[in-house]
Amino acid sequence: MSKTTGVVAVWCAGIAAYTVSITNRTSLAALGLETAEHFAVDPATLSLFAVLQLAVYGVMQIPAGLALDRFGPRAVLTVGMTLLACSSVVLALAPNVAVGIAARVVLGAGDAMIFPSVLRVIGIRFPRRLAPVAVQATGLLGQFGQLISVIPFAALVHVAGWVSGFLALAGTSALVAVLVFVVVRENRHERVQAVAMRTRLSEAWAESGTRLAFWAHFVTPFAGNTFAVLWGYPFLVGGLGLAQTTAQGLFTVYVLVGILIAPVIGGLSARMPQRRVALVGVVVAVQAAAWLAVLVGSGPAPLALLVLLAAALCIGGPGSMVAFDIARDHNPPYRLSTATGIVNGGGFLSSVLVILLMGWALRLHSHGGDAYTLDAFRYAELVQVPFWILGMAMVIREGRRAGAARAPAPELHSVLSRG
């Protein structure tokens, strides 16, 4: 097997793992109302399924990054996929809501290990000029996992039942765990020299480019995550009264437009690194404008506007990948995954807070009645606004500090190849 073929094989195995991890992450996206009925819970409790899952994901980013720098992607990917399989088994057989939420906590821990591992493979093995495009390609191909969760997986649960559906997902995750263990091979440069954890963390955060990347990742994906992971389907079906097939169609738009826009954003990030802050600003402005257009009307938004909303929200995912390009250009190899872990935690911190606050807002606005009304959602969606304001203020601040004062770090694969 040639070196190029080996790199592609490892990358493809990583993409398969990321796709299945997205399927696990968003497995409740089209089953929010069914989950509430299955466990007999209110919106605030339902939000805990996503909040705790994403909170653990965010908390685990730094440990996952440290583990990657120390043990390499093969071990971390295998452990992560195994945890995903276990979480689906537990959720399938959960006798009560507490066990169900615990299963999502385990899922968050396993999910946290997957994408940083793929980023590590790209950062180590791909040339700098190709890395931004490879990151975007990974992101867009992984998003098929969300499409799987919304259409075939949701249909399987409806037809075969809760237990059978989640056990099937567990089996798929276990098979991919075996795949990455067999296919992912590491050379002697994959694991860098051990450096004290405190040193790596402090050095990574002291770097202004890392802080810029953190806030860029904080502000770009939470609107799309909130929509895709939990509250989008209840909003469309419960708040707007759309048919389930129509809601699934909008989620399909969300995924497909993301696939189309990801190479564009990746190409812009690669060709114009000095314009990355502006690119983040455009992504945020489009998402905020789309939500404003949907929420200001007196009645339900027309379908055409909802299609535009789905298309606007999906760009948050590709937009957030720009943060990893920033982090990669400002950190040397020995702390790359540590910095990536810090950055990746940003978007999931904001997503956790927004999802939780929306659940509380829906419960407060329901006054003991139906929580999933259009008026309740109009009230709840406004919690996103302060997060956009804070995030963009910090992006502008750190962008000025980073500026052109620091030259990009040496290309990873060339540095490592020198030993």
From TrEMBL:
Main location: membrane
Entries under Pfam families matching the protein: MFS_1 (PF07690)
Entry protein name: Putative L-galactonate transporter
Record's bilayer topology term: Multi-pass membrane protein
Gene Ontology cellular component list: plasma membrane
Keyword tags: Cell membrane, Membrane, Transmembrane, Transmembrane helix, Transport
Domain of life assignment: Bacteria
Major facilitator superfamily (MFS) profile domain location: 5-399
Family: Belongs to the major facilitator superfamily.
Gene Ontology MF term list: transmembrane transporter activity
Cellular compartment(s): Cell membrane
Species in which this protein is naturally found: Mycolicibacterium vanbaalenii
Membrane-traversing stretches: 45-68, 75-95, 101-122, 134-156, 162-184, 212-231, 251-270, 277-297, 303-324, 336-361, 376-396
Gene3D superfamilies: MFS general substrate transporter like domains (1.20.1250.20)
